Amino acid sequence: MTWEETNKDMGAYQQALDAQTSSGADSRVAEGRARRAAVRAYRSEHPEEEAAHAAQARTAAPAGAAAAAGAAPAAAAAASGNGGSVAVAAAPMTAAVREAPLPTGNIPTPKKGAPDKHRLLAIVPPEGIQRVEREQGDRVHTWPHLLIEEFIAMAILFAGMLIFSSLINAPLRELANPNLTPNPSKAPWYFLGLQELLRYFHPMVAGIVIPTFILVGLAAVPYVDRNPSIKPGDRKVAITLFTILFMFGAILTIIGSFFRGPGYNWVWPWTQGVFFEL
Amino acid sequence: MAKIQPPNLRESEVWKSIFRPGSIYRKGYKDTSRDRALATMNNVLWHLHPTKVKRHGLKLTYTFCLGGLSFFLFVLLTVTGIFLMFFYRPMADIGGAQAYTDMQTIRTSVFFGDLMRNLHRWGAHLMVLSVTLHMARVFYTGAYKPPREFNWVVGVVLLFLTLGLSFTGYLLPWDQLAIWAVTVGTSLAGYSPFIAKQANFLLLGGAIVSPNTLLRWYVLHVLALPFVLVLFLSVHFWRIRKDGGISGPL
Questions:
Q1: What's the angle, vertex CA B124, arms to CA A250 and CA A167, rounded to 5?
Q2: Rounded to whole angstroms, how far apart are CA atoms A103 and A73?
Q3: Residue A71 has pLDDT above 70, yes or no
Q4: d(CA B30, CA B11)
Q5: Were both Cys, which of A205, B49, B67, B205 would link to A201 (CB 3.0–4.6 Å)?
Q6: Given an 8 Å threshold on Cβ–Cβ distance, is A219 in contact with B156?
């Protein structure tokens, strides 16, 4: 049955169409909702036709005849649609309660000459479409803009490293000797801040408590700082604290690296020399 | 005489099978919105990125490329590290000390050996630095705030693993610098509460830095830690996209 042959209420159609259009709906969505409203308005005014349809569907379904089974769901599908979306219907809804046809147990056989591929067509009410509300924002294509920038950064770093590595050799001292402790003995540079702390604290504090505190503290940062703003002006406390701690670590590392000499005693690097190896 | 047409490589079936639609190397690439998106989407490496990124993220002073460069350094260290593995044995028994003699061989006799070792050593130091600075950048741009809290935690784990990789590698040359730096660094584990002895033994494979330690740290350095790091790195990259790409703008 085409739209032209469908029984409908054109007054309700026009009313719903105007309402939808004025509320800013897309023209095709508005048209679809108005069509539904028109059909519903007609049905609610002619309940006797509905009852006849329903009775036909109920008697046809258990009969189990292939033809009737095919027709019954179609009739039910055409007649149903009272899925709670009453809001757009212009006329009041008094649709009769109808039961779905009982399963017939017939497995539909494919039509002769039907193509191997099949298409699925789902009819979805406009309200059923999930709208994703996300700002498109000011975006640019990754290729070429970001990838070229990354490539240049990588190439510059690699070129710099090649030049540096060609000119300056990594240290290799004499064979390891467990009986000969060099003076001073220093950890790798990234642990020199901790080694510097060893001068001031008990080893358990400097070596266990503080590093654990730093790692756990760092991991906990997002759960402690619940300020949602990322504007630097709103985060003065967080930025100040982090900067102080970061500088504290950097200064300790620099002291441990360049200002500590034999016996791990204080030296001035410009007079007594640098006791530091990478 | 008929002209012999050279076969057009870019139209050949082989070429087309290698370069997927949207590849800039494929014939018919057009600088359109569609092909630009496909160029990112259809490449196994580039599709770590979304097809479009926020414009402010391109600004050099927002990221300083620190995360990407850390990843590049990791790849570079993997490549140079594999090269060095061909010439290095983690053995240091009395009278043998192959680890140390292999280092000397790499420096003097292996083609490009010295350059590779230098790249590996300097790259390792640089990676510790770049990962640390990357963390500072992420803090200052507030990029750890919801929904990115967990990715920050993953990042802290990655920083810890980077330090672990650098420290385990530090022992491998088996020279005076190596064993004494490691002796100093690990002596602190002996102060752990309750499990001091056990922690020390687990870390060193004995009471002091010994050939056992060398083997243990070698396996950690070339296999165990990189494996764990790649796992966390995958989660790190994946979460960047799932959490909505780069943070900001400020």
A1: 100
A2: 10
A3: no
A4: 15
A5: A205
A6: yes
